[in-house]
Structures are given as C-alpha cells and as structure tokens.
Inverse folding.
C-alpha cells in the first residue's frame, strides 16, 4: 500500500515561490531587426527536438547524460502526512481558496500534528484510495493549487517532497536517501 502525500504542506513551508509573471530567466524579446530569425529559431528547435527523440542528442553539454527526476511516492516515508509542522509554515488559509478545503484539512490534523488517517506503525494511509485531492501529487493538483504546469511537475514535486522529508526526518535520513535514489533512477532493487 502506498502512502498519501499532502503536497500542500511543502508549499506552505515557503520552499516554493512562484515567479512573477513576466519575470524569469531574462529571456525576453530582443530589440534587433533580424527578419527571418524567428523561422530559423523554429527550425533549430524542430531539429533539436528530432535529435532528442531519436536518441542522437542527450540534451546537455559536456557529454553527460541528463537524469531528470521522476516523482514517485516512496513506501515507508509518510513525511507529507505530518500536517501541522509548526508556526514556520503557512496556514491552510494561505493555500486554499475554498473554505471547505481549509475545514477538511484542519479536520484531518490529529493532536500530535500527524494526519488522523496516517497509520504510524505501518506508515500507510488508511484512506489512500479515497484521500482528498490535496493529498495527491498529480499535475492537475499542482496546477490548481500552485500554478505549476505539467512540464515542471516532476521537478517541482520532487523538490517539494525533498523539502518535506528534510523538515520531518532530517537532511541525513534514510527516508531522504530512499527518495532521492528512487526519483533519480538509482534505486538498487
């Protein structure tokens, strides 16, 4: 049985801040006159895409193979099920627009700060198949709650999860090591 993952608490930690619209990597429209350069760029993009899909280009320099993380829940972790992480983390009201989501979230917090549906002895979720949407790490949930699109989902979900595991179990924990190995594709099983 897999664990439930409440991605909202990681974002509440302040670990993620969405960039302002129009701000970013400094890649704006140039002021040069280069007619026809748009078509050239599109052609270059198409060729690069074709090389990558055919396996002839690894997409990065220095001859290394890029190993982007692929998010997955790690059995036996449960860091996300610690719903009340203390005053350093944002309140549910700062994440949810719908008051019923805030109320549901708060109703799930046990006296020790862990989700009332989290079975500590087995590190599993007793309502996993029926858990609320905000306990699911899925592209549509990340888009709704945080404005994160599908392209960035894996990277951001992995980052959120790493931050949560560090906050709950520590930077040198077995849970963090297991997660990092799994999402980087270096699982030894």
């Amino acid at each position: 049985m897999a664990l439930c993952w409440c991605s909202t608490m990681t974002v509440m930690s302040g670990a993620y801040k969405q960039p302002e619209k129009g701000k970013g990597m400094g890649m704006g429209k140039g002021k040069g006159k280069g007619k026809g350069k748009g078509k050239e760029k599109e052609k270059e993009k198409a060729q690069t895409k074709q090389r990558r899909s055919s396996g002839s280009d690894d997409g990065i320099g220095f001859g290394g193979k890029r190993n982007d993380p692929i998010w997955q829940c790690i059995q036996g972790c449960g860091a996300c099920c610690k719903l009340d992480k203390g005053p350093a983390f944002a309140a549910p009201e700062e994440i949810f627009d719908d008051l019923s989501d805030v109320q549901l979230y708060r109703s799930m917090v046990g006296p020790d700060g862990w989700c009332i549906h989290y079975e500590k002895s087995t590190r599993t979720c007793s309502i996993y198949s029926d858990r609320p949407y905000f306990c699911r790490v899925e592209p549509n949930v990340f888009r709704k709650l945080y404005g994160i699109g599908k392209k960035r989902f894996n990277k951001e979900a992995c980052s959120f999860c790493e931050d949560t595991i560090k906050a709950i179990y520590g930077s040198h924990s077995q849970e963090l090591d297991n997660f990092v190995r799994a999402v980087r594709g270096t699982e030894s099983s």
The first helix runs from residue 8 to 12.
